[in-house]
Design goal:
Length: 475
């Protein structure tokens, strides 16, 4: 059935396209919480990558049936006839219909909400959109759209979080709307006014009572257009940059949030696996510094973590995400940065990046040797209670139960350095070189952590050491 709808949709659009063509011929930190906050960035980045792949698959389906994908619509374009009447497979229709057409909603403000089952922000948006639909009634139509297939969507609405949102009327198995409104990240919102004109493409946050009412009253809104950027290209580089040109060096550093990019990172590698390009988008400064410092510390045989920082700036809160009351984050302290160097200079990439940030940002950061208070992990006996019994390496982490099997002792060090039980860095002076098996239960504070380590004849002692530290200052 799904293939039937897909093929008929393609065939219908194809016939209308050909007919239209014939007729025309006749006459788109603060502190150590950063480690946990950073995880919040992984999901948007994951959504961006996966959806980019899904969109490529959608374009391929047009080719599979011998058709050319239609030209994407831009802001200001009018919805073409073939799109108005294209059959769209849907689910949860208020009247039980299996297909709809955009023309069913002509004369209304149509809000297309592109989503996916794995997109948490998309799902969190459903109640708000449902409330707005009820608020404005027949004046608007909020229509969810997903490229995911019938089986996935049916399962979603029957289990887990999805069963709480069976009121969501959605186009499914979509290959048509996503072609006319291409995007690389969800949620993605397309606005079509009562006259059939594409008003804007935005983030979900712009769907508000004020903006909807302004559109219905033919007034201006404050919505910023969301135009997704292809991250495989250098940031903001013109699409007319010829493939015949060889890009040898490129750098851009921009302060401000760009809605057409995810929050995360990207990179390019040589054939030998060396990174010669690093890209960070919509991130606060400490998240931009982090991968740079991770690489530079690694060259000294060390693992960077936030406890190896000395922050001497007037407003340290601006270095990390600034939360808002609605559990989202402010945009004013985010940056977009990319550096591409010649492949033969890949080994110097991260040194150059730190120099760039020192040159162009509001801060100066350097790695310096400092006598620092720290905790030292030591062995308290010659009894080997941590030697691994072998087997497949495993690593499990939680605040109540962490377990390592056949992993280096450095893994447990990384684990306890990432927690908030102490602000001091923790270094390894056990001298242990083999892999270990360890289990740590319920370490709620430093004392309970030490108690767990004592089971393995390990301990943490307070000491002073000369350590490499990242020192960050205002300019």
């Amino acid at each position: 059935m799904k293939l039937f709808f897909s093929y008929m949709g393609f065939l219908y659009v194809y016939i209308i396209n050909v007919t239209s063509l014939f007729l025309s011929i006749t006459p788109a930190i603060n502190g150590h919480k950063l480690i946990y906050v950073r995880q919040a960035f992984l999901l948007p980045l994951f959504c961006f990558i996966v959806f980019g792949y899904a969109h490529a698959q959608s374009a391929q389906k047009w080719a599979d049936v011998g058709l050319t994908a239609p030209k994407p619509l831009q802001i200001g374009d009018t919805i073409p006839k073939e799109l108005w009447h294209a059959p769209l497979q849907d689910i949860n229709h208020p009247e039980g219909k299996e297909t709809v057409k955009l023309s069913d909603y002509k004369g209304k403000l149509i809000i297309l909400d592109f989503w996916s089952t794995w997109c948490v922000p998309c799902i969190k948006n459903f109640p708000k959109l449902h409330a707005l639909q009820n608020e404005f009634g027949d004046k608007i139509k909020v229509l969810a759209v997903t490229q995911e297939d019938t089986d996935k969507i049916n399962k979603f609405f029957k289990t887990g979080a999805g069963k709480e949102h069976t009121y969501v009327h959605s186009v499914i198995n979509d290959n048509i709307l996503s072609t006319y409104f291409p995007h690389k990240a969800v949620p993605h919102i397309a606005w079509i006014n009562a006259d059939g004109k594409v008003l804007n493409t935005t983030q979900a946050e712009d769907i508000t009572i004020a903006n909807i009412q302004a559109i219905l009253d033919n007034k201006k809104t404050q919505m910023a257009a969301k135009v997704d950027i292809d991250r495989d290209r250098p940031l903001f580089l013109s699409e007319h940059f010829s493939e015949d040109l060889q890009l040898k060096n490129y750098s851009i550093f921009v302060k401000g949030y760009y809605p057409g990019l995810p929050s995360g990172g990207n990179f390019k590698k040589t054939k030998d696996g060396a990174i010669y390009s690093r890209q960070m988008t919509n991130l606060p400064m400490m998240d931009i510094y982090f991968p740079i410092l991770y690489d530079l510390f690694k060259r000294n045989g060390e693992r960077f973590n936030l406890k190896r920082t000395i922050i001497k700036v007037k407003k340290p809160g601006l270095l990390t995400l600034v939360p808002k009351p609605d559990n989202t984050f402010e945009n004013y302290n985010l940056y977009n940065y990319e550096l591409i160097v010649p492949e033969e200079k890949a080994d110097s990439l991260f040194y150059f990046m730190l120099e760039d940030l020192n040159r162009y940002s509001e801060y100066t950061g350097n790695i310096e040797k400092r006598i620092t208070d720290c905790f030292v992990l030591i062995r308290t006996s010659t009894n080997d209670k941590i030697k691994s019994k072998g087997g497949k390496p495993k690593f499990r982490y939680s605040t109540t139960h962490s377990k390592l099997i056949n992993r280096p002792i450095g893994s447990i060090l990384n684990l306890i350095n990432s927690d908030t039980l102490t602000k001091l860095p923790i270094i390894d002076e056990t001298g242990y070189t083999g892999n270990v098996d360890m289990e740590i239960l319920g370490a709620k504070d430093l004392a309970s952590l030490k108690k767990e380590l004592n089971k393995y004849d390990l301990d943490l002692i307070l000491a002073k050491r000369s350590l490499n530290m990242f020192v960050l200052k205002d300019k």
